[in-house]
Amino acid sequence: MEQQTEVKKKVMLSGIQPSGDLHLGNYLGAVKNWAELAEEFDCYYFMADLHSITVRQTPADLRRRSVSQLAQYIACGLDPAKNTLFIQSHVHEHAELGWILNCYTMFGELSRMTQFKDKSAKNAENINGGLFTYPALMAADILLYQADYVPVGEDQKQHCELTRDVAIRFNNLYGETFKVPDPYIPKVGARIMSLSVPGSKMSKSDPQGCVFIMDSPEEISRKFKRAVTDSDTENCVHFDPVNKPGVSNLMNIYAAVTGLSFEAIEHDFAGKGYGAFKPAVGDAVIEALRPIREESTRMISDKEYLREVYTDGAQRATAVARKTLRKVYKRVGFVEKPF
Q: Considering 9, 179, 204, 323, which one is annotated as catalytic?
């Protein structure tokens, strides 16, 4: 009788900072797609609380948001039985490998990171060392789990490229240690822009242009009715990201939550104008987020269940991370731990 060998799944890993509630851009650009990957990949998703403290946080709020974000992950379809869900700070190997990779990441490479420049401009009173070196921690997050793919938005490709460079540099020095990851960029809904500033990505720092998963239906409706469209005279629902970024962003959102093509959307709203389209997008988003918000609310009250999930997730993640870190310690010349 022939023995069937189990094909090992490729590894997918990503995390989102719990610096605020998850928003529509997080959901459509990342978490919604993550839920569909569990059958194909061995998936690790975490609350990136270590990254969050590069900006000053209120401790009680950070703790609350970390657990709330876990509930939202699950409500968005991330089954804890099929995905390893954990809080980053619960796996100390992240911080340990982060320090080591700091020593293999060049100052010039970190200086070129556009997100450091952006965050420094927004936090001029708190340009700390962590803000500068956090791409090395991000590399550690990925390389600890020998990830094959990292689902990232276009704005995060630079960090994935740095991770690849650091992994290759380390491997060249010490032999094959890390798997060199590739970015995984979804084609639909990958980059959701602000409702108030369509030239900028939807962000927690712009609450008026940002739709949060836990927003009430009334709040979502209000934000879409006030959404910036375009200053043309056509008042025509047509997809043209260069000349009509506002309405194109709304079409991108509508397509992502309804599954309709841009051609179908243009046909359905032909001659109706922005006044009809904006509330329709709001209504579609309300219905898409309603079950997620309701399930998140229910789960947040079940603190014992969420504790079980993040405890189990941390244990599973630690088992994998520890193997990588031991190999790294040996490669760089550290004395083996006696325990």
A: 204
- The domains found in the chain, sorted by start residue, are 10-190+303-332 (3.40.50.620), 217-298 (1.10.240.10)
Quick check: is 187 catalytic? no
Residue that the structure tokens 């991000």 belong to:
138
Q: Of these residues, 119, 223, 244, 278, which one is catalytic?
A: 119
Rounded alpha-carbon distances, angstroms, from residue 325 to 91, 96, 211, 316: 12, 8, 39, 15
Check: CB of residue 186 under 8 Å from CB of residue 198. Answer: no
Say which residues have a Cβ less than 8 Å from residue 285's Cβ, sequence separation at least 6. 24, 211, 220, 224, 253, 257
Whole-Å CA distances, 205 to 48, 69, 119, 210, 227: 17, 17, 11, 8, 16
Cβ atoms of 105 and 133 within 8 Å: the answer is yes
Closest CA to 78 of 30, 26, 35: 35
Q: Is 204 a known active-site residue?
A: yes
Please say if 119 is a catalytic residue: yes
Ordered alpha helix ranges (H), the chain: 24-26, 32-34, 49-52, 59-75, 93-102, 107-111, 114-122, 129-143, 157-174, 217-225, 245-258, 262-268, 274-300, 303-332
Catalytic residue chosen out of the listed positions 201, 223, 244, 278: 201
| Best CA proximity match to 278, nearest among 233, 238, 223, 231 | 223
Instruction: Please tell me the distance from the alpha carbon of residue 291 to that of residue 299, in angstroms, as a whole number.
Output: 12
Residue 51 tokens read as 């990254």
Place of tokens 């709001």: 282
Within 8 A by CB and 6+ apart from 90, the residues are 310, 314, 317, 318
For the chain (339 residues), the mean pLDDT of every run of 10, in chain order, is: 64 88 87 86 95 91 95 95 97 97 93 75 76 92 96 74 96 97 71 89 87 95 92 79 91 92 92 91 96 95 96 98 97 91
User: How many Cα neighbours within 13 Å face the side chain of 296?
Assistant: 25
Which pTM was predicted?
0.85
